[in-house]
Specification:
The complex is a heterodimer of chains A (803) and B (118).
Chain A: H1 2-21, H2 30-34, E1 51-55, E2 62-67, E3 72-75, H3 79-105, H4 109-113, H5 118-126, H6 129-142, H7 146-161, H8 170-175, H9 184-199, H10 204-214, H11 216-222, E4 272-278, E5 289-297, E6 299-300, E7 305-310, E8 315-320, E9 329-332, E10 335-341, E11 347-353, E12 360-363, E13 366-369, E14 371-379, E15 382-391, E16 397-399, E17 410-416, H12 424-433, H13 437-444, E18 452-458, E19 463-468, E20 483-484, E21 503-505, E22 511-514, H14 537-547, H15 553-560, H16 566-578, H17 586-597, H18 608-623, H19 639-648, H20 666-688, H21 693-697, E23 702-703, E24 732-734, E25 737-741, E26 747-751, H22 769-773, E27 778-780, E28 792-800
Chain B: H1 2-19, H2 26-37, H3 44-66, H4 71-79, H5 86-117
Classes of the chains: A alpha+beta (803), B mainly alpha (118).
């Protein structure tokens, strides 16, 4: 009996141990997680930012001053120490995030999250993310700056190595895993992560389906290469005569009209950005002024980490990407720079015809060998999954009978700029040191992808904008639809020589700007077509700068925070006028009058923006009901073209709702969609009390880990919206607002919706959000020497370990 | 009663010492040891170390968290979910530690009985 009791009590004790030491489903290991000496209670603190830290590998002492925003101002004696310190400090404040993003890029989330992430991981592997990172590392190795990437990696690792389990970021404790060593490959993966986010989209398959279903004439009406009205990034009057390389000649072959049911995940088409700069002549002070606000997903920890990086030879300040070296968007003593995404079609799909045993594919009337890449995906708590991906000279065969396709002997291969490899890192290292326009231009020549509109202003008074990326010189129409992969003329034949990328320097109008619109008009001698270009923000920005002669910092702030809804203003008055309102109910009439009273600003306390969003959303779905076909991947036309058709071709057959016997016109749809929208708005009013814009929109910053509510911020009070200069929608928006006046040294403002710390237990985790939402900025303290000024709250010294 | 107090104090003392070198389950070792060396009777076998560790963990958590305005505790209390109440999280923390200690102590007691009678 007593042995029975002994055994029983032993089993109980062991059982309790295992229960509290292991993750149960989504419940963290409670003993590990909650104990006060190694669990989350140890994260209940701000990072230590004083004292002396010994860092192996440093050549000299590095001084790190922190200001009240927890921005580190790093003073190193040489570049190697600078980037080693950047790695160390970024890891110190953002370790979990920087590692998690590279796991996501590499298709390794199953290792952390288990089998649920397997489909995602397979997709990223088949997209060639790791392959692309390997090509990037090869390119970096050819340049001497791999040593800096290596120093950065060692800096990260010197932080990781001295971490005790109690110091692990809270997400590691929650998911019960540990950080691994950082390496240059992880930096390359982070760059791939950005390339996927910003240049990983295409509509080839959707376009192909639409072309097959509707025919060429109808397709061209819905998806024109250029809209009737565009205001391109590079001014229309630009003379392109200096370009002496012709566009690739058109082989006039037919697209492959296959039907494909579903496609891999695409980046959010709402990612976009604004940048603009005015010349000295248009500036209140005679100094050029530059602004940038990249619109990305609003996440916590934020995608940006702000730093000052100084050596005796250069002094740069701005936003960094955790995982990448140097300042990405910022300024130094002489220049400032920023980016918006330069959407261009750099993803193309080729139909591949395999031989009997799928070891070869047809190309140029012969059989060519496929190569294999075995992707081993480790899964938490399970055996690994092995996926063998066939590679052609185009790129990986993403869709085949093993993945999202059931064709026995065919597949679709992806040609992507992300697979070519480029040393984008070099561009930023060089920009950080650039002193003038010539240096900036030289820095850009290394840049491959994702293509960006690099804006520039200097203390010398120059302003410029280059649409920079490695861009294929395509034949007319190439890559709009799925191409036959066996025909050599369908391959990318060459790239546009870098010097012929579209650009403008000191244009006569006195300002440069970009907002993801068409880079150029049809006069540009290379093939460019509408690849999802933005059509509203750019027109608001350009008319703002054309409206008067002189601009000051307040004007720049006002434009960042401009809530004018040009899109709504181009359709809603027309709908309100033409719609038959004779049989609206009393409640509907109230909403109609509210809509009429709206001045088209998406301010937080307006109801107009909510009415517009409901109404247009319903209307859009009614117009494009033809695109709602089960088992066929399709994208409905753009907002711009939809509005154009509604106003100019209101009797077109597309306006008809197929399900109803009646032949509807645009005018009918206005009323039908209005009634549905009004109905929904009244429901919202019942449920939520009102439908004012701030509540209707509900902007939030979600934690990177599936938006964990505990670590997220909800109901952020900010206006704006999609296609508005203040592009803040539900979960994306201006992720870093920066204004730099090119005084000597430059004077700058900046803010982002997050905080410098990645620790949800720190007061610096989300402390910028309220000021950001209110349209406020923080002065960026651009220190000129390593002597701490009164803006510095604490100093930490990184010291070499003596041999 | 005196043995209870001795056990209580010894458990806390041992747990604090062991926590410097061992992971969270140091409280189980501490309670096992005191259960073995300072045997208690009936429900006190479980509840004395339970209370000792509950107080130790709750007090320590409170100290750490109150110094930081309960910033993280409020968030973790949304996560678990405990309604965002940091004090409830502190209590749950104590109970988790207490349960682990209590069961380890029962085993310690049984072990002491087995050794004694042989």
């Amino acid at each position: 009996m007593k042995y029975f009791k002994l055994l029983l009590s032993f089993a109980l004790a062991i059982g309790i141990f295992f229960t509290l030491n292991n993750k149960l489903g989504s419940i963290p290991p409670l003993g590990k997680f909650l104990n006060p000496y190694t669990g989350v209670w140890q994260n209940e603190t701000d990072e230590s930012i004083s004292g002396e830290i010994l860092i192996p590998g440093l050549i000299d002492k590095v001084t790190v001053h922190y200001d009240a925003q927890l921005i580190p101002h790093v003073f190193a004696q040489n570049d190697l120490d600078l980037y080693r310190a950047q790695g160390y400090l970024t890891a110190k404040h953002r370790l979990w995030q920087m590692e998690f993003q590279t796991y996501a890029a590499a298709g390794r989330l199953s290792e952390i999250l288990g089998e649920d992430a397997l489909t995602y991981d397979r997709q990223e592997r088949r997209r060639g993310m790791v392959y692309g990172a390997e090509q990037t590392i090869k390119k970096m190795s050819e340049d001497s700056d791999l040593q800096f990437t290596q120093a950065y990696a060692e800096g990260v690792n010197s932080y990781v190595n001295q971490l005790e389990s109690k110091d692990l970021p809270v997400e590691y404790k929650l998911l019960d895993y540990k950080p691994e060593a950082w390496s240059p490959k992880k930096t390359a993966l982070l760059l791939m992560y950005m390339t996927r986010m910003l240049a990983g989209g295409d509509e080839d398959i959707e376009n192909t389906n639409a072309l097959r279903l509707f025919g060429k004439e109808r397709f061209d009406l819905l998806f024109p290469d250029f809209f009737d009205l565009i205001d391109p990034i590079i001014p229309k009057e630009t003379d392109w005569n200096f370009i002496d390389v012709p566009q690739t000649s058109n082989p006039f072959n037919e697209p492959v009209l296959d039907s494909i049911a579903e496609t891999i995940d695409k980046p959010d088409p709402n990612y976009g950005s604004n940048n603009w700069a005015v010349s000295g002549e248009k500036s209140y002070s005679g100094n050029a002024i530059l602004a940038n606000d990249p619109h990305l997903g609003l996440n916590l920890p934020s995608i940006w980490f702000v730093m000052q990086l100084k050596t005796p030879n250069h002094n740069a300040f701005g936003a960094t990407l955790p995982g990448a070296l140097a300042i990405i968007i910022g300024f130094n003593e002489y220049i400032s720079w920023g980016q918006t995404n330069a959407t261009r079609d750099v993803v193309d799909w080729y139909k591949i015809e395999f031989n009997e045993d799928r070891t070869k594919y047809r190309y140029n009337n012969a059989w060519k060998d496929v190569t294999y890449r075995i992707e081993e995906i480790k899964i938490k708590g399970k055996a690994s999954f092995k996926d063998s991906v066939r590679y052609t000279h185009h790129g990986p065969v993403v869709y085949d009978k093993n993945f999202k396709s059931d064709r026995e002997k065919a597949g679709y291969a992806m040609k992507w700029i992300g697979h070519i490899g480029g040393n984008g890192q070099r561009t930023f290292l060089d920009l950080n040191k650039s002193k003038n326009y010539t240096d900036y231009l030289q820095a850009l020549t290394h840049y491959t992808a994702p293509a960006q509109n690099f804006i520039f202003a200097s203390t010398e008074g120059d302003i410029a904008l280059w649409v920079q990326g490695k861009l294929p010189n395509k034949w007319e129409g190439q890559g709009k639809f799925i191409m036959d992969g066996s025909l050599p003329e369908n391959d990318w034949q060459s790239f546009i020589p870098q010097a012929f990328n579209a650009h403008t320097k000191n244009p006569a109008r006195g300002f440069v700007s970009s907002a993801n619109q068409h880079p150029v008009d049809e006069a540009y001698p290379f093939y460019v077509y509408n690849d999802g270009y933005e059509t509203y923000r750019n027109r608001v920005i350009n008319s703002y700068f054309s409206a008067k002669d002189e601009f000051n910092i307040q004007d720049f702030k006002d434009l960042h925070n401009n809530n004018y809804n040009l899109k709504a203003s181009e359709l809603m008055p027309y709908m309100l006028e033409t719609m038959d309102i004779s049989n609206l109910t009393a409640e509907e009439k109230i909403i109609f009058d509210e809509a009429k009273a709206w001045k088209y600003n998406n301010d937080i306390d307006e109801v107009g923006p909510s009415i517009w969003k409901q109404w247009y959303g319903k209307l859009y779905n009614m117009v494009w009901d033809e695109f709602d076909i089960e088992g066929t991947a399709l994208d409905a036309p753009s907002t711009y073209q939809t509005i154009y058709l509604l106003k100019n071709k209101g009797e077109d057959a597309f306006m008809d709702i197929i399900k109803t016997p009646k032949k509807e016109t645009a005018k009918d749809l206005f009323l039908l969609s209005f009634k549905e929208a009004a109905n929904r708005l009244m429901e919202i009013k019942l449920e939520e009390g009102n439908y004012i814009w701030v509540n209707y929109k509900g902007t939030y910053a979600g934690h990177l880990l599936q938006g964990l509510p505990a670590f997220s911020r909800f109901d952020i009070p900010i206006g704006g919206g999609r296609n508005i200069v203040n592009a803040t929608s539900e979960n994306w928006g201006p992720s870093w607002r920066m204004i730099v006046e090119m005084t000597s040294p430059p004077t700058a403002l900046g803010i982002y919706p997050g905080g410098q710390s990645g620790n949800p237990g720190s007061k610096y985790y989300d402390n910028f959000i309220d000021d950001w939402a209110a349209g406020k900025y923080h002065q960026l303290n651009f220190l000129q020497s390593d002597i701490a000024t009164d803006v510095i709250i604490s100093t930490q010294t990184l010291t070499p370990i003596k041999e | 009663m005196r043995t209870n107090t001795t056990n209580f104090i010894a458990t806390i003392f041992l747990a604090i010492i062991l926590s410097l070198v061992l992971p969270w389950w140091s409280v189980m070792i501490a309670a096992l040891a005191t259960g073995l060396l300072i045997p208690l009777k009936k429900i006190a076998v479980f509840f004395t170390p339970f209370l000792a560790i509950l107080l130790f963990w709750a007090f320590y958590s409170f100290m750490l968290s109150s110094a930081n305005d309960f910033t993280l505790a409020k968030r973790i209390s949304v996560l678990l979910p405990l309604g965002g109440n940091p004090y409830l999280l502190i209590l749950v923390t104590g109970i988790i530690g207490g349960i682990a200690a209590g069961f380890a102590a029962i085993f310690g007691k049984q072990l002491s009985l087995a050794i004694k009678k042989d």
